[in-house]
Amino acid sequence: MDDNFQDSASDDGGFDLRQEIARSAFADMCHDWERNQKYDQALQLTISRLHAAGQQAHVLDIGTGSGLLSMMAVRAGADSVVACEAFRPMAECAERIIEANGMQERIRLVKKRSTQLSVGPGQDMERRANVLVTELFDTELIGEGALGTYRHALQHLLTDDVLTIPHEATVYAQVVECPLVLSWQQLKTLSNADGDILLRVPPEVVSCRGSSAVFDIQLSQLPVGSFNALTDPIPVFKFSWSKHNELVNNRNEKRDCPARTSGFPQAVFMWWDLVMDSAGDVLLSCAPYWAHPDHATLKQKQANSTTKRRMPEGNYIPWRDHWMQAVYFLPPTKVPLERGHQFVLQAYHDEYSLWFGIGEQTSTPLSAPHCVCGWHIAQSRSRFGQLNDSLRNKRYLNYFERVFSSDSVVLVLSEGSLLGLAAARMGVKQVLLYEPNAISRRCMEAFVEHNSVSNVCFLSSADALESEQASSVTHLFAEPHFPSAILPWDNLHYGDLLKNLRPMLPTSVTVIPSSGTLYALPMEFLDLQKINAPLGTCEGFDLSLMDRLIEQHSAYADSPIEAQPLWEYPSFPLAGAMRLMEIDFLADFEQSKIERGEIRVVEPERLNGIAIWVDWHLDETRSPKTTISSGPLVPVEEASDEPTRWNANWRQGVHLLRKLPNRKEVIPWTVKFNPVLNNVYFQFDYED
């Protein structure tokens, strides 16, 4: 059999399609053992019940992906199976996987969307199917178009008495007070160490409901005590996948709720569960650990194990990354709920999205949220967290008070920098704000106007800095932050801007930060490595061909380092943090650099990833009080059986080990910095 998949991406020349294949969630889903087993159980129960009733089982699998569910249907005794897959490279891979498992005569694979299938003798489907098995869901349940796909299938492809797997879904909502998640949505007043207000938030920003984009998150990893549950989990929507007339695009449900404790209703935590079969014998829950039906049983099972590592509470339940939970922000309110108070939770959905509100039974319906202030368009949620991070802001502002004076002219080379704007309120002569993005610039202008800041000048590009302005600059400041940055060191764009502007600036200019240091930490992740790990066999089926497809395209199109919010993925350090490279903005930024070294790993067989981050040093002392870290909250000095606590307002870089060879105890590493391309390259030689 030909295992070469290179032609899969040849039609369009390549890169984008290869990247789409490499980053598809097919393998991630197949690592979800609970999902796989419960789909398998539901297929066996459904098909056996049909046969017991004297009926045949004709199965349609929409969006077959790897072909796994179709092969499960054959193994369960289906009389016929039709599978469709529109993503051509995956369809070709599924065809080979099905053949490798000896089922090519039992499964008819159609490389089309389900909405393009024809039914009748000699057509795509010989007859309508009386069993539908499919996985059309995302974290928001309906965000991938499940409603429209089901309605079309029920009308055109399925029998009236069809049995769907899953059978139905229930969406749950829990109203919470959670300052942590609110800090990723709402900007706070910025004050100095004495409590003096430097910047107030404009009213249009305070009242903005933010973006309608789903905020998916691993709720089980929220720090203990970080939220106050104002209600129990509340079922708000039910979707019966076999009932065409109930699968409508727009619904509004109201639920009377008693507040179980007092607090401000700031957000809704949402998740859903699936009843997999029509008899309700198989349930798959996406609930966080505190609401998961199996949590107590699984926790007791873990308590009986002999592992010495401290398992986080949220990791007793089955892990998955393709279906998480979601946070929805409620319209801002200054009125708290009192314990025992009855209120109405309003739940809405359209064809693709959910949203929520608090009101009365007679309240006017609430429209879907959209950003009117610009901040939720210009900046990411993690950036909101950085802007609201009181410890981070305190370090910057304390440093400003030491180094700025009434004669200071500060050039700010960061986008959306409220700290740079705050400097204008601290008595400096002038602040020059680099804001090349029009939306971000309007956001900052609103702050300037609302706070009556007069000593600010905006620069729409670095070229807009006039020589007279440049010659007056005493301090150059960057957080640094640029919205285009994905990995922490992508913000080295600051050094590139500085390099280009330096000939115009006085030689005496103070540069803040003066340097950045790259660090690495060898890790054992409990689950994150699965998103990049080979499958081999899955529920008894050989899926190694899909491993080869993804690995081949990943090697071509993906960076070996990806950005992840590591606080959501518990991990254990296998050594102390290793300094990789220091990049000096004062002296040698224009020079290519290469550093080499070794990391000595405790228990190398546990190694499955390497975390990487940047610390920014405001001055040459490199003191903890003048260092801003995008990595662990507490310095990691040695291997530990306690999970690492990561800064939740940054995405760190992580290199996930795809293969599982023998590991070295000593890992040689090489880091290269190319200032021309503004790139950092990493190599870790961990294979024995």
UniProtKB/TrEMBL annotation:
UniProt-listed InterPro entries: Arg_MeTrfase (IPR025799), MeTrfase_PRMT7 (IPR014644), PRMT_dom (IPR055135), SAM-dependent_MTases_sf (IPR029063)
> What are the EC numbers?
2.1.1.-
Q: Which GO terms describe its molecular function?
A: histone methyltransferase activity; protein-arginine N-methyltransferase activity
What family is reported?
Belongs to the class I-like SAM-binding methyltransferase superfamily. Protein arginine N-methyltransferase family. PRMT7 subfamily.
Q: Which PANTHER family match?
A: PROTEIN ARGININE N-METHYLTRANSFERASE (PTHR11006), PROTEIN ARGININE N-METHYLTRANSFERASE 7 (PTHR11006:SF4)
Q: What does this protein do?
A: Arginine methyltransferase that can both catalyze the formation of omega-N monomethylarginine (MMA) and symmetrical dimethylarginine (sDMA). Essential arginine methyltransferase that can both catalyze the formation of omega-N monomethylarginine (MMA) and symmetrical dimethylarginine (sDMA). Specifically mediates the symmetrical dimethylation of arginine residues in the small nuclear ribonucleoproteins SmD1 and SmD3.
What name is this protein filed under? Protein arginine N-methyltransferase
